[in-house]
Structure formats: structure tokens, C-alpha cells
């Protein structure tokens, strides 16, 4: 079963829903796809608003949140930065909150993000994940991902973007 959530641009209107998703990860765990850094203050309204402004103004990355009704299920980011960054991180980063995994949320979001990539002129994207992240590997392969290489702790996939 694939849950087809909606991709939404980050917004302060979803602050409470995002904070609920954020707490689902637990302290110290990395949340891929949200563009959150250690310098971001998401606990205060002003800090959250500043973070949203930073994400929306980032010309090197397109951020979207996976939203189902009034709930934020995860985040997905399409990087269009430097070759060096893309080589290291890939074009794509995403994360689904732990309580929503296994329902196909990432599969649906990736399909939608490929449409965004096409609208931005991409013909293919690269995604990188850890070699033991079986769920991500399955998601990338479901989207037509072709294994490019395996490095010590990570694998890289190329996914064609339909136009």
C-alpha cells in the first residue's frame, strides 16, 4: 500500500504539525529532507518562521513536506547545488517520521518530487543512502533507480526524470 501524501512547501501554518513530526524522531536523530541544522531554532515561533524563510529562500535546494490532512509525515529535498555537493550528498534527501514508515509515504513523495525535478529541467537525479537502509534502497529501486556504485558505507542510485 502506497500512501500518497501531498507535497507542500514549508510554511509556518504547519508549525504544530511539523513539531509533532519532529518529536516523533526523538532527540539527536537526523531528519533527512527538512534542511534542519543545529543552528536552527524551531522551538520558538520567531525561530521557526526564520527557518521557514531560510528554506524558502534557498536557491540551491527545493524543500517540500509530505502532508496528509493536517499531519506532516516527512520531508523531501531536491538539491540543485554544486557538483561537489551533489557528488557527496546526491540530489535527493528525504525522511519519513518513524511512526509513518512502511506505508509507502516515501514512494509517493519521490514520485511527486520527480515531477518537480522535471519542471526544473532535470533529466536525471542522483540519490545516496546508507548500504544498510533497505527501505530507502527499495524506494529508490521502485522509482526506477539504477545502482551507480557502492562505496564503503553508502550506495548511489541514478533515477531518470520523465519529461
Would you identify the CATH H-level superfamily? Gcn5-related N-acetyltransferase (GNAT)
* Global mean pLDDT: 91
Number of distinct helices: 5
Q: Domain count, please report it.
A: 1
Description:
The protein has 163 residues and is an alpha+beta fold. It has one domain (6-160): Aminopeptidase. 34% of the residues lie in helices and 27% in strands. The protein has helices spanning 15-25, 45-57, 83-89, 105-119, 134-142, and strands at 6-8, 61-68, 71-79, 92-96, 124-130, 146-150, 154-160. 32% of the residues are buried.
Give descriptors for this structure.
163 residues; Aminopeptidase; 4-stranded antiparallel beta sheet; 3-stranded antiparallel beta sheet; 7 strands
Produce the secondary structure layout:
Elements: E1 6-8, H1 15-25, H2 45-57, E2 61-68, E3 71-79, H3 83-89, E4 92-96, H4 105-119, E5 124-130, H5 134-142, E6 146-150, E7 154-160
Antiparallel strand pairs: 1-2, 2-3, 3-4, 5-7, 6-7
Question: Outline of this structure?
Answer:
The protein has helices spanning 15-25, 45-57, 83-89, 105-119, 134-142; strands at 6-8, 61-68, 71-79, 92-96, 124-130, 146-150, 154-160. It is of the alpha+beta class.
Amino acid at each position: 500500500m502506497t500512501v500518497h501524501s501531498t507535497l507542500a512547501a514549508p510554511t509556518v501554518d504547519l508549525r504544530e504539525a511539523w513539531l509533532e513530526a519532529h518529536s516523533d524522531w526523538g532527540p539527536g536523530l537526523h531528519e533527512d529532507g527538512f534542511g534542519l541544522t543545529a543552528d536552527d531554532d524551531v522551538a520558538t515561533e520567531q525561530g521557526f518562521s526564520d527557518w521557514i524563510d531560510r528554506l524558502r529562500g534557498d536557491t540551491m535546494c527545493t524543500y517540500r513536506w509530505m502532508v496528509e490532512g493536517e499531519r506532516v509525515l516527512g520531508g523531501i529535498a531536491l538539491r540543485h547545488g554544486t557538483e561537489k555537493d551533489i557528488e557527496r550528498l546526491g540530489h535527493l534527501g528525504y525522511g519519513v517520521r518513524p511512526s509513518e514508515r512502511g506505508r509507502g509515504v516515501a514512494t509517493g513523495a519521490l514520485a511527486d518530487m520527480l515531477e518537480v525535478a522535471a519542471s526544473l529541467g532535470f533529466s536525471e537525479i542522483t540519490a545516496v543512502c546508507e548500504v544498510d537502509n533497505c527501505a530507502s534502497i527499495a524506494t529508490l529501486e521502485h522509482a526506477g533507480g539504477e545502482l551507480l556504485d557502492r562505496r564503503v558505507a553508502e550506495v548511489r542510485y541514478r533515477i531518470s526524470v520523465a519529461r
